[in-house]
């Protein structure tokens, strides 16, 4: 491992031919009525730059992966911890791209610990899986008492507009949510080229983009109001359900932009009843 000085911090660059490691550790704390990025450490090409405070006490951070693409054998690891009472919104400025490979699977592991009465919004841009990519995606959220969460993901299978129809691709996507050490959600999606799940009506029905939003705790009876707010989007399949106080919105579409726009509308509607704040769109979404 070779240490490199970067902007006053030490970056460790792995010397390996088996793939790159990008690792980022973040810690948020509430100080003086405002959430601060109090702890930050990174290895390799995964980092954040400055924090933004467009709504006062909530800390907005943009997670950046400068290479833009992930090759076989690469690993991206994000760990974030929110201290009690802190509030953070994390997003990304660009899509994550996983390239075709003949090597080992690429792995993205993201782990979040949200302390008592803290709130986390993790709202990344889309993930693009090129044909013949082999990918494992794992998200794990640990919530303390009174903690709030809103997160989404947009998964693009290939790039149909460029003739890439996810031929030969394979992806395993895992979502874990716990509260006080008790499992609330374990959602797993296995996608392999040629599997009937990709093409049958009871599966993805040929749609190349899969979107999901998860929020908790959600007040009883909010689902009908959310359905009415979203209406019947053109060219999209949409479903809303709940398990306990966890709300799920799932949608299928033909383009990342339309799916992401729907999730943004849903997030804006849910933010005040779930997070306790009116919508405040991250500036990076408008660039």
Q: Could you explain how this protein is built, in words?
A:
There is one protein chain. The chain is mainly β. The chain has one domain (2-286). Helix content is 11%, strand content 48%. It has three helices and 20 strands. The chain has helices at residues 196-199, 222-230, 256-275, and strands at 2-6, 9-13, 21-31, 34-43, 47-48, 59-64, 69-70, 75-82, 87-91, 96-98, 106-114, 119-123, 127-129, 134-143, 148-157, 170-179, 182-192, 209-216, 237-243, 246-253. Strand 1 (2-6) and strand 2 form a beta hairpin. It is globular, with a radius of gyration of 19 Å. Mean pLDDT is 91; it is low at 1-17.
Briefly note the structural class of the backbone. mainly beta
Question: Which bin fits the share of residues in helices?
Answer: 10-25%
Helix and strand sequence: EEEEEEEEEEEEEEEEEHEHEEH
Biggest beta sheet attributes? 11 strands, mixed
User: What overall geometry do the principal axes of the alpha carbons give?
Assistant: globular
Tally of helical segments: 3
Number of domains: 1
State the total count of DSSP E strands.
20
Query: How many whole angstroms does the radius of gyration measure?
Result: 19 Å
Distance between the termini: 36 Å
Mean pLDDT: 91
Task: State the low-pLDDT regions, or none.
Answer: 1-17
How much strand content do the residues show? over 45%
Summarize the entry for a quick read.
This protein has 287 residues and is mainly beta.
Describe the secondary-structure layout:
Layout (H helix, E strand, L loop, with lengths): L1 E5 L2 E5 L7 E11 L2 E10 L3 E2 L10 E6 L4 E2 L4 E8 L4 E5 L4 E3 L7 E9 L4 E5 L3 E3 L4 E10 L4 E10 L12 E10 L2 E11 L3 H4 L9 E8 L5 H9 L6 E7 L2 E8 L2 H20 L12
Parallel strand pairs: 3-8, 6-9, 7-10, 8-11, 9-12, 10-13, 11-14, 12-15, 13-15, 14-16
Antiparallel strand pairs: 1-2, 3-4, 5-6, 15-18, 16-17, 18-20, 19-20
